[in-house]
Amino acid sequence: METATLEPTITKKGFKSEEYFINMGPQHPATHGVLRLLLTIDGEVIKKVEPDLGYIHRSIEKMCESNSYQQIVHLTDRLDYLSSHINNEAVCLCVENALELEVPERVKVIRTILGELTRIASHTLWWGVLGMDVGALTSYFYGFRDREMINDIFEETCGARLTMNYNIPGGLMEDIHPNFVKRVKEFIPHFRSKLPEYDRLLTGNIIFQKRTKGVGVLTKEDAINFGASGPVARASGHSCDVRKYHPYSALDKVNFTEILDTAGDSFARYRVRIAEMWESLDIIEQLIDNIPDGDHKVATNAVIKLPKGDFYQKVETARGEFGVYIISTGTKNPYRVKFRSPGLSNLSLLNHIAVGGKIGDLVATMATIDIVVPDIDR
Amino acid sequence: MGYFSNIYHGIGTLLTGMRVTGKYFLNARKGAITQQYPDNRDTLKMFERFRGEVVMPHDENNEHSCTGCQKCELACPNGSIEIIWDRVIDPETGKKKKAIDQHIYHFGMCTQCGLCVDACPSDAIKWAQNFENSVYDRTQLTRILNKPGSKVRAGVEE
Ligand code: SF4
Ligand code: SF4
C-alpha cells in the first residue's frame, strides 16, 4: 500500500502537485447514510480512505442489557434495516436455542420465506441505488417498483414495511395473512420477468461495465483476512454462505446453490447479487406450496429467563454474516449482547481496495460493498 | 476489438437499455404504480394490520375492556405507556377492584413495535391505520386513550 506523503512535488510540466484531504460525507448521497470518509487524494487519485464512524451511534448493544428478551428483537430492526426480518430471526433463534425450545415447522418455513423475500427486497434496492450512484437514474425507479410488491406483502402480514418485528421468541407474532401465499405466488413470476430487464438495462450497459469492471479488486486472501462475508466475499471466491454451512430454520430442506465468482471486482459483486436474487426466488418457490399446518408460535413464559451461559447464533443477511452473542447470568435481562454485523468488516476493507483508484471508482466500490451505516454504527 | 467496433458495440448496449425504457415510456399508463397521494386520500386504504398508532376502542356505552392490568406498560420497551390506576369499589360485589384512571400513550416515543397490543390479555388496545401524524407541538402526541367518563365493560376480568 502506498503511504501518503504531504511533501509538495514538482511535476514535469513545472506545476506544483500536492496531496490534500477531503471530506466525503457525513452528508453525502454516495455514502448511503451518515458516514464520513476522510480521503487523502493526489489530484483525483486516492491515496488513503479513512472511514470515520459514530454519527449514528445509538448504543443498541447497551440498550439490550436493560431490555427483556422479547424487547431486544425490535431493536435489531434498527441495525441493518434492509434485512430487519433476518436480524429479528437471529435473536429469536439464539433465545430459542438457549431455552432449547423447538418451534413448529410452520414457523420455520414462514421465517425462511420472509427471510428470502427480505433478501430480494434488499438486493433490488441495492441494484437501484447502485445504478443511481454510477449515473443511471432509471434503475432506481425500476428497483423500487419491484421492491414495492414485497413491501406490500410485508405490510399486509407483518404490519410494517421496514421495521417488521414479526418474529418473537417462540414463533411469530401473528399467523400469516390469508392473502400471503397468493401475493407471493404473484410476485415470483412477476419478478422472474423483470430480472432479465435488469440485465438489459444495466448489466450489459457499456458505461456501467467500464465503471465497475476491474474496479475495487478484492483478492480471496484479503477477503478472508478482513473477515468479509456475504456477496462481497463470495465475489472473491471465498465460500462462506451461512445458509449452506450452518442451515437454520427451513434452509436445510431446500436446494439452492451458493453463488461464487472469482474476479473480486465491483462487477463480480454485482453479478453475485443478481444471481442470488434468482436463487432466493427458487428457495421461495420450493417452500411456498408446502407451508405445513400448525400453530404460529409455542407458548413461552411471559418473562423469559435464559439459563446461565453464553449463546451464539449466526445467520446470513443480505449483506453477510450477522451474529448474535448473548451472555446470560440467568436473569430476565441479558448480561451482555454483542452483534457481529457484516457491514463493519466489509467497510474495513474499503481502504485496501480503493487506494490507487479515482474518486468515481470509490463511489462504485462503496455501492457494490453495499454498506448500511446503522449496521456499522450500532 | 477495433476502435470502431468498440463504438458500435457500446452504442448497441445503450440502445438495448433504451428499448426497455422506451417500452415503459410508450405504455406509461399501463403498469404505473405511482399513487397520487394527497389526492387519493378518500380511496386510500391501508392494510388492516398496518401499525399506525395505538388506540383503545370504546363501544356505544362509552365502555372499553381495559382492566388496568399494566401488562402493556411492562411489555413496552421504551416506556411509551403509562397506566394510572386506582382501586375502586365494585358496586355489585362491594369488593375493591383495580381500575384505570388514565391510560397515557406517548405516541412521540412509540416505535410501533406491537408488543403492547400483543401483550394485552383482554384486547383492550389495537392498532389504528392512520399515518398522518405530523403535529406542530410534540405535547400533542401524548394521548389519553380512555375517553373521559368511560369505564370498563362488565364481565371483563383481569
Ligand atoms: S408499540 Fe411498542 S413502543 Fe409503542 S407503545 Fe406499544 S410496546 Fe410501546
Ligand atoms: S390495555 Fe390491556 S394490557 Fe394494558 S392495562 Fe389495559 S387491559 Fe392491561
Tell me what you see in this structure.
The complex is a heterodimer of chains A (about 375) and B (about 160). By secondary structure, chain A is α+β, with helices and mostly antiparallel strands. Chain A folds into 2 domains: about 10-50, no CATH class; about 105-300 and about 345-375, Cytochrome-c3 Hydrogenase, chain B (Orthogonal Bundle), CATH 1.10.645.10. Chain A has 15 helices and 10 strands. Chain A is globular and about 80 Å long. In chain B, a hairpin with a 6-residue loop joins strand 3 and strand 4. Chain B is built from 3 helices and 7 strands, in the order H-E-E-H-E-E-H-E-E-E. Chain B has about 160 residues and is α+β, with helices and mostly antiparallel strands. In chain B, about 20% of the residues are buried. Chain B folds into 2 domains: about 1-35; about 55-150, Alpha-Beta Plaits (2-Layer Sandwich). At the A-B interface, helix 2, helix 5, helix 6 and helix 7 of A face helix 1 and helix 3 of B. One iron/sulfur cluster binds near residues 54, 78, 110, 111 and 112 of chain B.
